[in-house]
Amino acid sequence: MVKYSDGLDAVATALANPGRRQVVARLQRGAATSSQLADLLGIGLPALHKHLAVLHAAELISSQKSGRVVTHRLQRDPLRRYQAWLTRRTAFWNEQLDALAEAFVAP
Amino acid sequence: MNPALSMSRSIPAGIDAVWLAWTTEPGLARWWWSTWPDTRYRVNAVVGGEYRIEAAEHGMGVRGVYRVVDRPGRLAFSWIWYDLADGVASEEPADEIEVLFSAQPGGTLVALTHIGPWTTADAAENYRQGWAFVLDALERATSGGEREGISPWPRP
Predict the structure, then answer these.
(1) Which pLDDT belongs to residue A107?
(2) Chain A from 59 to 88: CB within 8 A of any B CB
(3) What is the DSSP letter of B71?
(4) Which is more confident, A102 or B93?
(5) What is the pLDDT of residue A89?
(6) Has this prediction a pTM greater than 0.90?
(7) CB pairs under 8 A between A and B
(8) What CATH number should be reported for the domain whose range is B6-117?
(9) Chain A interface includes B40 (CB < 8 A)
(10) Which of B9, B92, B123 is facing A101, going by the closest CB pair?
């Protein structure tokens, strides 16, 4: 059973924002620097750093500094755990609603 | 699209019969884990009342409190999974479920929404979009190929 100590609440919080979803979608295509992400979102670096902090807290990204350039990469495991949470519940309700419908079908 | 954990199903029965199937012990016993011989049902379908459905053999159960009991159109309740493995109950934080019933030709439409434990009311739409985003990614992942070009917003 999925436990919340896995940080699903942090992942959900991180993804409950259009800008951060945009960052995740961008990083699914490969690594990007802070400047590239700020440009993509059309925001300044201070605002971007707030988003990145939330993504870090959810362990959705990892960052590497080289000189003055910071490069960010997507970590897929939290996303996979979140997907597992969603698919488990979706499967559960599909099964329950099937059973409900079947209960009313004449034998 | 089907936004994350919202789904609906047509049930070939009148709205009152479907309402009773959700809100009474004999009603639930007709379909909820009904094929497991030892499922037990305790239901008090009033606002603030509790329900508990437990399948000892499978070591699992679900319980919660009714938030809205508006016969026959709307039912809302909290939702706590618990696990009876090793005789120790371990619980997950409460999710929230809302079920809407509406009469339609030939039966009743049941529309269900399942919200995770992290939501606050005003952020629900944002969380739904987060779900949709992840489900979209999942769909692409399971349909093969690279997960590229995923939209950060749910599809219309």
Answers:
(1) 61
(2) 79, 82-83, 85-87
(3) T
(4) A102
(5) 83
(6) no
(7) 115
(8) 3.30.530.20
(9) no
(10) B9
Collapsing DSSP to helix, strand or coil, B11 comes out as: strand
CATH tag, A4-103:
1.10.10.10
Residue A32 forms contact with B (CB below 8 Å): no
Nearest by CB to A105, from B12, B131, B134: name it.
B12
Beta carbons of A3 and B5 less than 8 Å apart: no
CB of A37 within 8 Å of any CB in chain B? no
Measure Cα distances from B48 to A7, A79, B2, B62, B68 in Å: 30, 35, 30, 16, 8
Distance, in Å, from the CA atom of A25 to the CA atom of B129, rounded to the nearest integer, reads 13
The residue type at A25: A
Interface test with A, best of B8, B53, B104, B133 (most A CBs within 10 A): B133
Backbone angles phi, psi at A8, to 5 degrees: -65, -35
Q: Which two tokens stand for residue B72?
A: 């026959």
pLDDT (tens digit, 9 = 90+) per residue, B2-33? 234 788 899 999 999 999 999 999 999 999 99
For chain A, domain boundaries: 4-103
β-bridge partners, A71 = A33, A64
Listed by start position, the domains of chain B span 6-117, 118-156
